[in-house]
């Protein structure tokens, strides 16, 4: 019998909690319940949902049932008016909220990161075991899988006639290099983003590698071992990690949070009137013998707008790269590992693009004699906010057809959080 997905949002503190509700979807009830403390984070979440309802183009029609108070966890566990939970807020207690939802037999759509310290890794293992036993879905908001250049890169690296097999690389010259640069000051859903103070606390939010590094760790698994389970204990060897601090002035902090001073909770990170945040991290590891390097960075503001993503993937036949200048969309390039095979690579890439026309009509190749550029039609370009709608569509689809969830997803959830939390642990010790 068909049943509607009925949303419950638990302690929304991050704007991602609202972005998954930016569209109305078939199979999802229009009433959503919010269980949370009655604080600024909750009010901001409600304002975003109200904004979706009030917009001129394609307004949503959400009804919100707010159940706020200090006992919101107890009420959530006791009342259960819904069957699916959205969790996107403070990172430190997130795994406990996921466990609470799973224990209540509610499906979970949880924003990254689920854990920020390796000491909590056993909790993650226990939660996923319980989810399997109770037959509920625990799903990550892995938005980078829906970026078209990442999707195409995955298709190309899986084609041995085009890419070959993965080089092993070295720690100094990895076979896969992924870099992500995010910006603190940005616009979300048409309005300037006001960040809560706790976002800057490494005790609550964690370091950059434990947070946005989740996307990069997931992409490394998604590219090197597509549709395959990766055993973190035997197939991942952490080789090194590092960190660098980012300085935020009190004036900048005020612009970002609308608070006049640094709160007491952040004073341990304040030196000579400036806040220090572990916003720059790197990690190196071997994944099934393929060397990988991740780099995550936060900057105050982009001069041209937008976060950026870069990647280099080295195969035995071709090197593929994603390059994204500031203010421009990411672009995908390929070059032959052996320059004498440039023409053969160009021919194979054109054949590959032709085979993808059903999904990506208009895909073409430009050859400058040295490097091949994949021309992506503008109609296939999507925004960061669009990716959250795509994640929600995927979650709804799996909710209605749980047996279609790939069997490797839980195993690789453990693998990606093993990478990020071990990297954060190693970076702190170094």
TrEMBL record:
<dbReference type="Pfam" id="PF16490">
    <property type="entry name" value="Oxidoreduct_C"/>
</dbReference>
<dbReference type="InterPro" id="IPR032459">
    <property type="entry name" value="Oxidoreduct_C"/>
</dbReference>
<feature type="domain" description="Putative oxidoreductase C-terminal">
    <location>
        <begin position="153"/>
        <end position="427"/>
    </location>
</feature>
<protein>
    <recommendedName>
        <fullName>Putative oxidoreductase C-terminal domain-containing protein</fullName>
    </recommendedName>
</protein>
């Amino acid at each position: 019998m068909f049943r509607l997905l009925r949303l419950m949002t638990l302690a929304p503190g991050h704007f991602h909690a609202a972005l998954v509700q930016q569209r109305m979807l078939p199979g999802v009830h229009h009433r959503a319940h919010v269980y949370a403390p009655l604080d600024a984070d909750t009010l901001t979440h409600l304002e975003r949902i109200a904004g979706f309802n009030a917009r001129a183009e394609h307004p949503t029609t959400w009804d919100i049932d707010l159940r706020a108070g200090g006992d919101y966890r107890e009420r959530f566990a006791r009342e259960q008016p819904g069957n699916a939970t959205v969790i996107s807020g403070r990172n430190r207690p997130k795994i406990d909220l996921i466990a609470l939802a799973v224990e209540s037999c509610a499906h979970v759509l949880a924003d990254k990161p689920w854990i920020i310290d390796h000491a909590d890794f056993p909790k993650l293992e226990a939660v996923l075991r319980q989810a399997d036993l109770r037959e509920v879905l625990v799903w990550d908001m892995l938005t980078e899988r829906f970026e078209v250049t990442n999707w195409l890169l995955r298709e190309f690296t899986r084609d041995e006639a085009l890419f070959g097999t993965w080089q092993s690389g070295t720690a100094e010259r990895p076979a896969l290099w992924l870099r992500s640069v995010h910006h603190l000051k940005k616009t979300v859903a048409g309005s300037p983003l006001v960040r809560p103070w706790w976002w800057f606390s490494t005790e609550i939010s964690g370091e950059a590698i434990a947070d946005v590094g989740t996307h990069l760790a997931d992409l490394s698994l998604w590219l090197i071992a597509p549709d395959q389970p990766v055993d973190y204990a035997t197939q991942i060897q952490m080789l090194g990690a590092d960190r660098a601090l980012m300085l935020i002035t009190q004036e900048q902090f005020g612009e970002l949070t609308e608070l006049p001073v640094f709160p007491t909770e952040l004073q341990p990170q304040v030196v000579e009137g400036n806040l220090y945040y572990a916003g720059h991290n790197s990690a190196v590891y071997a994944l099934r013998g393929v060397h990988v390097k991740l780099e995550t960075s936060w900057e105050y503001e982009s001069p041209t707008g937008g976060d950026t993503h870069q990647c280099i993937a080295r195969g035995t036949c071709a090197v593929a790269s994603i390059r994204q200048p500031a203010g421009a969309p990411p672009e995908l390039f390929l070059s032959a590992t052996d320059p004498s095979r440039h023409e053969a690579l160009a021919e194979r890439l054109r054949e590959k693009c032709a085979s993808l026309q059903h999904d990506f009509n208009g895909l073409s190749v430009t050859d400058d004699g040295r490097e091949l550029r994949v021309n992506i039609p503008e109609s296939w370009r999507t925004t960061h906010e669009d990716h959250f709608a795509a994640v929600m569509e995927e979650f709804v689809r799996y909710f209605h057809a749980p047996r279609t969830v790939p069997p490797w997803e839980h195993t690789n959830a453990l693998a990606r959080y093993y990478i990020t939390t071990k990297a954060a642990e190693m970076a702190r010790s170094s």
